[in-house]
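Our collaborator T.R. sent over the components below with a one-line note: 'Predict the complex.' Nothing else. No constraints on interfaces, no templates requested, no preferences about which chain binds where. So this is a plain run: every listed entity goes in together, and whatever single assembly comes back becomes the starting point for the next discussion.
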Amino acid sequence: GAVVSQHPSWVICKSGTSVKIECRSLDFQATTMFWYRQFPKQSLMLMATSNEGSKATYEQGVEKDKFLINHASLTLSTLTVTSAHPEDSSFYICSAEGQANGQFFGPGTRLTVL
Amino acid sequence: AQSVTQPDIHITVSEGASLELRCNYSYGATPYLFWYVQSPGQGLQLLLKYFSGDTLVQGIKGFEAEFKRSQSSFNLRKPSVHWSDAAEYFCAVGAPIGDSSYKLIFGSGTRLLVRP
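Returned assembly:
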């Protein structure tokens, strides 16, 4: 149990376009979802926390207009990278938290912006 | 501010040898502490966690960790390493948000290489 999926697993896009990444909890309801960014050979940095039906809480230094997060249901959260640029290229990871059973991580999405 | 330090970027051990991965944290209150493992193509997997109680925590895959408040440490150990343990290991501290949730602050990770 407690499986989290991400789609797509990798994406290449042109500079200036927007990219949407989905995070789904497959077998449990996620009251809270988290979005992380991981640079090569570096740690995971929390970008934002989202609760179903409410606005996301962004970490300091994360542009909320750049990284749009929507948590429309208890099993789905989306991260949209708007007007992507090469510096947005990274590995994006989500995690989902159910009730009192901790966070479970998705496999990540590799974004490359040309 | 909360932070996690993993001083070893890489560690190489021989298969069958013992392993200790170091983790030091900075946190104002009693911390929630975690160790995760990341393998290529897979999501982070929780090895073990410490919230309270016994300071020696047993996890999956034969791992254990010991919380030492006096040293602000939560080192991960395994008595005998298997080749399949080669991966990236992350220590994290959980900062509570709301009633039952917490956000994770990760260390920079330690890459474990296993010699045959």
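Summary for T.R.: Chain A touches chain B at residues 4, 31-32, 34, 41-46, 49, 93, 95, 97, 99-100, 102-108 (CB under 8 Å).
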